[in-house]
C-alpha cells in the first residue's frame, strides 16, 4: 500500500486530502472518503487505508478546508461542539464543489479506473455522501449514519432529503437501531423518500448498535455488525465499480 498527503485545487484554493492506494499501476476503482464531523483524523485515515487494502484508491478529503483546514478533534463533547461549529460554515454548494474537484482529481490519475468512483461517508460525512450523490461522475454512494439526511444542516440549510429527486447513483445506507441522533422514524422517512423517488437503494439497520458503530473505538462492542457492514460494502462496490 502507498499513502501520501495531497492538495486538491478547489476554486483556486488547496484542499488538504489523504490518498491511500494499493501498490502497482492499477488502474483501481476509487472511493472518496468523507470524514466524520471531527475532521480528517486517524480514524478517517484508517478507513482510507482499509479501502486501499481491499484494492481501491481511497481519497479522504478535508471539506472544512476553507475555514478549519487543520481540524482534528477528539471524540469528546467539546470535540463534537467544535466539529459542529466547523460544519456550520459549509454549505451544499461548497460540499459539491469539493467532491466534484475530488472526482476530477481522481479521474486525472493514471492509477484510477475511469468512471469508477464512489463516495462513502460517516456521521456528517454520511450526509455529505447523500447530498453529493447528485453529482455527475459518481457510480455509487454509501452513507453511514448520516444525521442530517432527515434533519436540517448545521448551517441552517434544509435536510438532505430535499435533494432526493436529483440523486444519480445507487445508494447503500447504514444505521444503528439505538442511534441517539437518528430515530427509527427518520430512517423510515429516508427509505420511503428514496423509494418514492424511484432511486435504487438499500437501507441496512442494525438493531443493537448506536451511532458511529463502524468507528474503530467501537469495534470491540460491534464486531458482528462491523464485519457484516464491511462485507456488504465490498459486495456493493464490486457490483457498481467493476
Q: Which bin fits the share of residues in helices? A: 25-40%
DSSP strand content: 15-25%
Series of secondary-structure elements, N-terminal to C-terminal: EEEHEHHEHEEHEH
Highest CATH level, the class: Alpha Beta
Distance between the termini: 20 Å
* Cα shape: globular
Contiguous helical run count: 6
Mean pLDDT: 94
Query: What's the main sheet like?
Result: 8 strands, mixed
Low-confidence regions: none
Number of domains: 1
For this structure, the CATH topology is Rossmann fold
Adjacency order of strands in the biggest sheet: 1-2-4-3-5-6-7-8
Rg over alpha carbons: 16 Å
CATH H level: which superfamily? Alpha/Beta hydrolase fold, catalytic domain
CATH architect. name? 3-Layer(aba) Sandwich
Describe the structure in your own words.
The chain is an alpha/beta fold and 242 residues long. It has a single domain (2-241), classed as Alpha/Beta hydrolase fold, catalytic domain (Rossmann fold). It is built from six helices and eight strands; from the N terminus they run E-E-E-H-E-H-H-E-H-E-E-H-E-H. It has helices spanning 42-53, 77-87, 92-107, 124-131, 184-196, 219-241; strands spanning 2-10, 13-21, 28-34, 57-61, 112-122, 140-144, 171-176, 201-206. The chain has an eight-stranded mixed beta sheet, sandwiched between helices. Helix 5 links the parallel strand 7 (171-176) and strand 8 (201-206). The longest helix has 23 residues, at 219-241. The chain is globular, with a radius of gyration of 16 Å. The relative contact order is 0.13.
Amino acid at each position: 500500500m502507498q499513502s501520501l498527503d495531497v492538495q486538491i485545487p478547489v476554486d483556486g484554493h488547496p484542499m488538504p486530502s489523504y490518498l491511500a492506494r494499493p501498490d502497482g499501476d492499477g488502474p483501481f476503482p476509487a472511493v472518496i472518503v468523507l470524514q466524520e464531523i471531527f475532521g480528517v483524523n486517524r480514524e478517517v485515515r484508517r478507513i482510507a487505508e482499509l479501502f486501499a487494502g481491499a484494492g481501491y484508491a481511497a481519497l479522504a478529503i478535508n471539506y472544512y478546508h476553507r475555514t478549519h483546514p487543520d481540524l482534528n478533534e477528539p471524540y469528546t463533547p467539546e470535540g463534537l461542539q467544535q466539529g459542529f461549529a466547523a460544519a456550520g460554515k459549509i454549505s451544499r454548494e461548497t460540499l459539491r464543489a469539493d467532491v466534484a474537484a475530488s472526482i476530477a482529481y481522481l479521474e486525472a490519475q493514471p492509477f484510477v479506473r475511469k468512471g469508477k468512483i464512489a463516495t462513502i461517508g460517516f456521521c456528517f460525512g454520511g450526509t455529505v455522501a447523500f447530498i453529493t450523490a447528485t453529482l455527475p461522475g459518481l457510480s455509487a454512494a454509501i452513507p453511514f449514519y448520516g444525521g442530517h439526511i432527515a434533519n436540517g444542516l448545521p448551517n441552517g440549510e434544509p435536510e438532505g432529503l430535499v435533494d432526493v429527486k436529483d440523486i444519480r447513483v445507487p445508494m447503500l445506507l447504514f444505521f444503528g437501531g439505538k442511534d441517539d441522533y437518528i430515530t427509527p422514524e427518520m430512517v423510515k422517512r429516508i427509505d420511503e423518500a428514496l423509494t418514492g423517488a424511484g432511486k435504487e437503494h438499500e437501507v441496512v439497520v442494525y438493531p443493537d448498535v448506536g451511532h458511529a458503530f463502524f468507528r474503530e473505538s467501537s469495534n470491540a462492542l460491534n464486531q458482528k455488525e462491523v464485519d457484516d457492514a464491511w462485507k456488504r460494502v465490498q459486495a456493493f462496490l464490486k457490483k457498481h465499480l467493476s
